[in-house]
Design a protein that fits this description.
Elements (H helix, E strand, L loop, with lengths): L1 E2 L2 E2 L5 E3 L8 H10 L4 E2 L3 E2 H5 L3 H5 L10 E6 L3 H12 L5 E6 L4 H4 L11 H14 L4 E6 L9 H11 L4 E4 L14 H7 L8 E4 L5 H11 L3 E4 L8 H12 L8 H19 L1 H8 L3 H4 L7 H7 L5 H17 L2
Amino acid sequence: MRIGNIAFDEYPVILAPMEDITDTAFRFFCKKAGADLMYTEFISSEGLIRMAGKSMDKLRLSDDERPIGVQVFGHNVESMKGAVEVAERFYPDLIDINYGCPVRKIVNKGAGASLLRDIPLMIRMTESVVRATSIPVTAKTRLGWDEQSKVIVEVAERLQDAGIQALTIHGRTRAQQYAGLADWSLIGEVKNNPRMNIPIIGNGDIDSALKAGEMRDKYGVDGIMVGRACVGYPHLFREIKHYFRTGSLLPMLTLEERLEQCLAHLEKLVEIKGERAGVLNMRKHYSGYFRGVPHFKPYRLQLLTLTTLQEIKETLHQIRDTHLSNT
């Protein structure tokens, strides 16, 4: 697969942009586990043109995580154009436009998935962003606004005509949010549309190597994007890449390995964000690191109340010691 001047040697497995999740620390571990392409958290175009601190912080990129894309959202064509010009100064490998976020506060501002109700504005915005930069522009969207308006086949063609160089499709409508099962049949229809000649990346419910292989083989998409299932479990990228290369499954991580990765992630967050912010951010990841571990709930509740790195280290060691004494 190729996006502009970015070529992928193997079938790409891609990290989805997720607010308050895909920060520098988390991307470090996803890249280490084999993610082929990563995205920043989505960034407000209004925040970027005002040089707001929180928005600018999200543009912190490093060479060891390339290729990496900056995802921008907004409702105003001129603001989006200005935001891309700001983002360019940080040398991302591509710019991605968010036309898929279903969150109410984003949609109510006319951004994210709201654009699925105003396709002409979506196209004008895309054309403006493409003209504003020499960096490849991609987009991420959904099947449509609701069950009665699954317009993705038409939208994909028009976005391609507007100049995007790859399209990621999440297999749900905005109305579904993240409920129910993702419908990949329309993603496959877009991929097999003879009018389409840009890469089509599938997204939605990829929670295992087997599921990734099934969607790749059944629908023929050019790449797989992984979202919620890798939160607290960046090792999922290693599992998927290994399966694609060999056809075999890696053994599950031991509790010792999970504890080691969890602690490394926490220490990275503290190194980058400071102790207070790092500890708070890590709370989003505990469930993923210990998914499936018997009798973990009391420990998770305890971890959510701790406020220092040392306290959390001691609790993680306690989890290890308790588990070892019970085996």
